[in-house]
Each structure stands twice: as structure tokens, then as C-alpha cells.
Amino acid sequence: MKRSILFLVAVLCMTYSFAANPxxxxxxxxxxxxxSKFSIQLQKSDVxxxxxxxxxxxxxxxxxxxxxxxxxxxxxxxxxxxxHLSWNCMSAHLPAQLPKVAKKERHETSLSLRYDFNxxxxxxxxxxxxxxxxxTEIDWMALHGINMPLAAVGHxxxxxxxxxxxxxxxxQVNDFIAGPAFxxxxxxxxxxxxxxxNPDSWYAQQEALxxxxxxxxxxxxxxxxxxGYSGMVPSKLDLGKKINxxxxxxxxxxxxxSSQSTIAKWNGFDxxxxxxxxxxxxxxxxxxxxxxxxxxxGKSKYYSxxxxxxxxxxxxxxxxxxxxxxxxxxxxxxNKDAIWVVQGWTENPRPEMLAALNPxxxxxxxxxxxxxxxxGIPSIWKRDEGYGNHDWLFCMLENxxxxxxxxxxxxxxxxxxxxxxxxxxxxxxxxIGLTMEGSETNPVMYELMCELxxxxxxxxxxxxxxxxxxxxxxxxxxxxxxxxxxLVEGIYNCPQGNNxxxxxxxxxxxxxxxxxxxxxxWSKMCNYYxxxxxxxxxxxxxxxxxxxxxxxxxxxxxIDICRQAIADKARMVYSHTVADFNCFxxxxxxAGYKEFLSLLLLQDELLSTRPEFRVGRWIEMAKSxxxxxxxxxxxxWNARVQITTWGNRYCADTxxxxxxxxxxxxxxxxxFYYPRWAxxxxxxxxxxxxxxxxxxxxxxxxxxxxxPAVSIDWYAMEEPWTLxxxxxxxxxxxxPIETAKRIFSQL
Length: 747
Hints:
The protein is an alpha/beta fold. Helices cover 44% and strands 9% of the residues. The strands form four sheets. It has an eight-stranded parallel sheet with strand order 6-5-16-15-14-13-12-7, covered by helices on one side. Strands 1-3-2-4 form a four-stranded mixed sheet. The chain has a two-stranded antiparallel ribbon with strand order 8-11. A hairpin with a 2-residue loop joins strand 2 (48-55) and strand 3. It is globular.
């Protein structure tokens, strides 16, 4: 009996310890028993800091917040223990005796706000994450110093509750709210209903998930950024009349029709209407929105609003300053100390709005600081006066569409960041942000970005990468260091003046034509590195791969680098093959396109060796949210459509959304991209052979790109895959090192 009581007390004490100190839980998730090897000390301080020290056999980590302590743990693991925790692996086997901290090491930063996420991230990467995956992500955020992430999970539940409360039917609500893989663009006022209708179970599980997410964030001391209200209303529902009927204080004579914009389009989709802030119904709707938000998720210190996002044809007499005041006042009614978080993107936030709002009430995300900064330094989006006296964050966008590909702007990122130390326009910088459209790629860039606030000394990419490589693989190796030196001088060093959006896109993922270059419509791709350099880096990694067998980080990077090398080689083969076609060099053309198709299939095989590069992982994650076969089918369709056609025929072709979220993934390459290219090359082969086929155009608006004999209905080829239910494996089915070596021996 006594032993039972002692055991119960021990369990209760451990449970309390986990709840009282989230760092204990973090360490135990990294490695069971790891918490006993550290001494965690939370200390008050007016400046953000973490400190590494030693006391006996324990490593001491001090900090003024739990997030800063987690940042210190991450620093220790990387630069003392040679352990790098990343999206591809967030657990490790710590040595029985940790390396000692010989001399106390302290890091401080004045950049106290560290933001995470883009609305797009929640749809391109996260729509089907469960609590286990979110728990891992929150740990990643804490380890990387993030203390104010966007928290948009379950936002659709707020809207559903509000509309139902106003008397709208479930069918009407479902016609408005988008499906799981498209919620981001619904939230950003770009579309309505696409991907739905969502079943009741979706709302229940997302509400529960968001509450778990927020609970863990608050345990860490993280301040979530909740979505605010900036005027969106359903285009087909007269919300103003509903408000008037349900609110005796509203002006009964008013109707929102006069101040709602007419139904506008976004790449073929109907956009939600915008209720202008001067409408008598605006405040009533805003108050209802915040009331429902507070009921579900509580009040927040930060609310995210992006009024008139990528909007055109706004009223000529729209007073942006007054609109900003109304939006701010609605937010302040729910929390007088709340801060409005707004994206610095294209024309937003409007200068008139900045002039009308009080400094300190607004926090601007300079969304693409590493390429197109708006805060005052030279760029194509430069604002001469920056953001005036308003606070702002230096953000790295890095990825668009969650596309797969090595990419970075290391010199430009460092140069622009260090300019914030001396340029007068940066007087009100308050921190940094990660604003990627898709995550789980290019961990090297996010590691660099998250370290910058903690490094007082100016660093170069060459010096930094040496420490990163050693930490990531837990060992120093000359060939590996050489490979990464090549990458950081080439593909990871996109220069100023190149304004492409995200990775250098794979030719495999492009809709075939005689002029194929980029895969998505707006990537602004421009060659900036020698494609042979990635092949050289891949061969260097392969030359020592056997000595890193079983090293998860190395094997992930090896496959990613080899993938890039194959994609770059295929681009060169494509260019030569098109030239041979134009010259009617039949023999060379035939050999060229066969080599291209062979490379595509080899790429598919290579990527089967890592779960991160398998389409099955994405699809099965989506299906796992369904409770019935009908629900599973809906979520699978969402997952398949988003990464391929994105929309219906009109939105894919005329709206140009197709392939925006393209992926170089196993399964997708073989079953979606390969048939497109095989069909195209066969048509060109017929033309070279003198058969001159004339194919039906269907309803596709895809242009023949200078080859009148080729008029393939691409959408008709693509849509069947989005409607299919064939099973794709999730886990790797071959050894990554041996497979890569065998494939590269054939190149």
C-alpha cells in the first residue's frame, strides 16, 4: 500500500512538473530521460536572453521565457552535442553524458517578437495535420524562438457559428466556407465554397484541435495571432438585412447592398463581398465575429487582418484611413490592448491607413524582406518612407505554393537584415518573421533566419554554413563541406534583381510545350546558377554517403540534393530535345525525349526512399480526417486537386492556377506528370515522322505555344487523377543511399 501511494505521488509530481514547466515535456519528446540531463532556470530580465552553463553533470539553460530557454536548448544541441532537430526529424538519442559547457555562453536580442506562418501555410502544408503533428510543430517553434505565430486552425468554426446564429441554414453556410485544402484563400477573401461542403465532424475536430494548439502555446508563453475581422461577407447572402433583423439598434432602413462590392473574381473564382467599414451593419457584424471568436478561443493580444487583400476595382472614394480606424476600433472593443497584425504585401497596408492609425497599435509583417523589402531599402517594392513610425517585422517568405526545390537568398537575406542595424527606416523594427507559403522544405534557410536575432556579430554565409553542416550531421567531413559550399554559392544564393517566387521549378512539373520553363504561372523564374553545380554537390555527397548511413538528416539532404540534380539535368535534356525537334533532327530528338522520360521515372524511384517526398503521405494524411468513406473521399479530392489543377477547368486554365502548388513527389511524378510528357513527346514524334496530327482542343484554353499541330486538352488528362482513389504508399520502400548510388551510376 505504501509503495502504491509513493508511486502515485511520483506520477502526480511528474505530471505537475510537465504542466508547470513545458521544457520538461519538450525534452522528453526529444529523447526519453533527456530532462534529467538539464537544469532549467527561468529568470526575470528586461531583455530577451538565453544562457548556457554547467553545474556538475547537468547542462544549465537559463532564459527569461520558456521560448528563449528552448532556443538555448536548440543552440546547445546544435553547437555542443552535434544534434540538429528539424522537420525531417524532431527526436534524437542524446549521449548518456552530455558534452560540458566549458565557459558560460550568453545570447541576447532586442528583436523580441518572432512571428511564424502565412495564411497559405495552413492550406499548403497543414490542412490535414493532427494533434501529434501540431505538437511537434509547436516544439519546433519554441526551439527556434517563435513566440507569436498565426493561429488560424478552426477559424472556419467561428464563421459557421456566427452565420448559424444569424439564422442561415447549414447549406447556405457550406456554400460559403471553403474545403480544408482551400481555407486559406477563403480567409483571405479570394474565394467561396470551393472544396466543400465540410461535414459537421470537420468543424468539431478542428475546434478541438485549435483548443489543444492554443493551450500548448500558452504553456510555452507563446502569444498566438488570431484572425480578426476586416469586412468579408458572403457574396450571395445579404448579411446586412440579417443584422438589421437581429439587432434592434441597427439602422432598420439601411441595407448592406449599397456598400458591399459587387461580386468580383479571383482567377475565376467568385470572391466574397466586402462590407465597407462605413456601412451601418459593419460594427454589428464585427462585434458578432469577435464575440464568437472569444467564445471558442478566448481573447488574444494579436489579431491578423488584411483588408482589401489583392483587391481591384475598389470604390474610388474609399477612405482607407477611416476604414483602418473602424477596423481598429472593432478589434479594440474586444481587447483594448490588442495589436493589429497586417501583411506588408503589394499595396498593403495603404499609406493613408498608416497615417490614420496610432503607432504601437499596428504591427506590419514585411512579408518578403529577403527579396522585395518594402520597409525603405532599394527593391522593386520599396516604400520611400517605409512604414513611418509603425512597428514592423523583418520576414523571410522563401517558399511559394509549398513547391519542392532547393532555394535560398543567403547573401541578400544577410545584407538586408544587417541594413536594419544602420538604416533609419528600421528604427521601429521589433523582430523577425517566417512567412513561407509552404513549410517542411529547405531547413537550412529557416535555421539561418532564426539564428540571426541571437547573433550579435556579423556573419557570412560561408562561415555560418560550416557550423550548420557540422551540427546537422553531427560530424565534420571535407567532401560534405565542399558540397554545401557549392550549394550556398549557387542555388542557395539567388541574387538581388532576381525576383522569382520560391524554388527553381522542376521542368517535370510543367505543362508540356515547346517553351516550357516555369511550372506555375507567376513564379518569375530566371536562371541564376549553373545546373551542373547541383550535380557536382550530389556526387560529392554520394562519395561519402556510406559513412553517414543511418544518419537521418544526411539521408534526407542527400535525396533532396540528388533530386535537384536530376531535375536540373532534365531541364538541360529538355532544351536540347526541343532544339532537335525544331531542327527536325529526328534521331537526336527521339533519343532526347526518351532520356527525359527515363530521368522522370528515375526521379520518381529516388523519391520513394523518403516519406517526405511521397504523395501517399499527403493523401493518407487527408483521408485520416474522415470518419466515413464520403468524408475520406472529400478530403482526398481536396488534397489531389490542390497540388494539380487547383481549380475547375476555367480556374485551372484561364485563371492560371494549375500547377501553382506542384510537387516533385513519388507517385505524382509517375502517374500525373509522366503521362503528360509522354503524350506530348509522342505527338511531337508523330510530327517529326510527318503524320502532322490535329488533336481536339476540348474546352482548354491552353495555347499551342507556336506549334499548331499540338492542341492537347490538358485538363481532360489531369482531372481523372484528381477523382481517383488509388492507394499510394506512405513509408519509404528502399534504402536511400543505395538507391541514389544506383540511379546516379546510370546518369
